[in-house]
Amino acid sequence: AITAYYNSDLADGKWRHFMSVEPADTMWRSYRQNPQVLPAPNMVSDEPNLTLRGVYEGIEYREPSTERVLKADATLSLNAEDFQRERGSHEATWEVIRGLGHSGHSVSIFPTTAPSQQGENLRAAAPRLEYDFEAETAGSVKVSVQMLPTHPVKEGTGLRVGIAIGDTDPVELVVDREVGDRVWSHSVLSASIEASGEIEIPESGSQTLKLYMVDPGVVVDRIHLSK
C-alpha cells in the first residue's frame, strides 16, 4: 500500500522510479528481491589496483603521488583537511566539514558572513591553511584547487581562493559560475569544480603551500600540484 501510494498518488506519481528497486552492490542484502549478478570470471582482473594512465580527450592523467613529494612525472594531491597549520582571524577561520567531499572531508570558511579579503590584506590577515611538502625541482608549477560547486556568497564574483608558496604573494584563483553553462552543469553532476593557475617554486627542497581565504562560502576538497 505504501509503495502504491508513493508510485501513484504522491504528487501524482512524480517520484515513480526515482529510486532503484534493488540496493546498491552488497548493501542491505536481506532486502534484495533478486540474487546479485556478479561479472564473469574472465571480466575480473587479477590486479588489485588499476592505475588510469594515458590521454583521454586531450587531458593527461598522471599517477598520483602517495608521498608529499612533488616529482616531475607525478601529480601531488593534497586533501584539504590534511593541513599542518592554520591561521585564523578575529572575523573568520577555516573549519573541517566531516563527511563532505570526494576525499572524505573538506574545509570551508566560517562564519559565512565574514568579509572578503583581497589585495595586501590577503597575505597579511586572511585566514589560511598551510601544507608542507617536498619539491624535487624549482620552477613553475600548475596548481588546481578542487572545490564543491557552491553558489558564490558575493554575487558576480565567482568562487575565489588565494594560493601561494612560502612567503610569496598569493595568486588569486577564480571559478566563474554562469547558470546554464555546460561546465557548471557537469560540475554539479560530479560534485566537483576546479580553479586552476600557476605558481612559482623558487628552489627545490622543503616547501609550504598556503591556501588563503578570499570569499566565504567556498568549500575546498583537494589541491593538486604538477610540473
Q: Could you walk me through the main structural features you see in this protein, from its secondary elements to its overall organization?
A:
With 227 residues, this protein is mainly beta. The protein contains 3 helices and 15 strands. It has helices at 2-9, 120-125, 182-190; strands at residues 54-56, 59-61, 64-65, 69-70, 75-79, 85-87, 93-98, 105-110, 128-135, 139-147, 159-165, 171-175, 193-201, 205-213, 219-226. The N and C termini lie far apart (60 Å).
Main beta sheet strand tally, sense and closure: 7 strands, mixed
Name the structural class: mainly beta
Estimate the global geometry from the Cα principal axes: globular
Estimate what percentage of residues fall within beta strands: 35-45%
State the separation between the terminal residues, measured CA to CA.
60 Å
> How much is the radius of gyration in Å?
22 Å
Number of helices: 3
Order of helices and strands: HEEEEEEEEHEEEEHEEE
Q: What share of the residues lie within helices?
A: 10-25%
Q: Mean pLDDT, as a whole number? A: 82
- How many β-strand stretches? 15
Low-pLDDT windows of residues: 48-62
